[in-house]
Amino acid sequence: NLNGKSYSDNFQFELNYKIIKSVDLKAAYKYLDVYTLKSGVGNNKIQQPFIAKHRVLVNLFYQTFNRKWNATATMQWYGKKRLPNTSIALDATSTANFEPSIDSLRA
């Protein structure tokens, strides 16, 4: 159901750091540029729906000194995502709606 070619460009940066012997920190950033070239008058670059361009992950891990217990806390953030156009007259110049960014914290 795809009209045109689809492309993906991405970049990821990750940092792992041992704060102290029993505490580790991990942080990561990912950039995803996923798009379709719509044919017509010139090629129009349209961002794929439901895919956030920017993502961030931060993880904190703790382990007791005797290594019997551990705990982890993870925070994830997803940037805004384009929502698909559901109108009947679908063209590349229509205004796209975006879902706001989302974050979550799990422990």
Describe this structure in words.
The mean pLDDT is 83. Strands 1, 2, 3, 4, 5 and 8 form a six-stranded antiparallel sheet that branches. Strands 6-7 form a two-stranded antiparallel ribbon. It is 0% helix and 62% strand. The N and C termini lie far apart (40 Å). A hairpin with a 5-residue loop joins strand 2 (23-38) and strand 3. It is built from no helices and eight strands. It is elongated and about 65 Å long. By secondary structure, it is mainly β.
Structural class: mainly beta
Tell me the distance between the termini: 40 Å
Low-confidence stretches: none
Mean pLDDT: 83
Which H/E pattern describes the elements? EEEEEEEE
**Morphology call:** elongated
According to DSSP, the number of beta strands is: 8
How many H/I helical runs?
0
Q: Multimeric state of these chains?
A: single chain
Largest sheet: 6 strands, antiparallel
**Share of β-strand residues:** over 45%
- Rg over CA atoms, rounded to whole Å, is 20 Å
Helical fraction: under 10%
Descriptive keywords:
single chain, 107 residues, mainly beta, six-stranded antiparallel beta sheet
Write the layout of secondary structure elements.
Layout: E1 5-20, E2 23-38, E3 44-47, E4 54-63, E5 70-78, E6 81-83, E7 97-99, E8 102-106
Antiparallel strand pairs: 1-2, 2-3, 2-4, 4-5, 5-8, 6-7
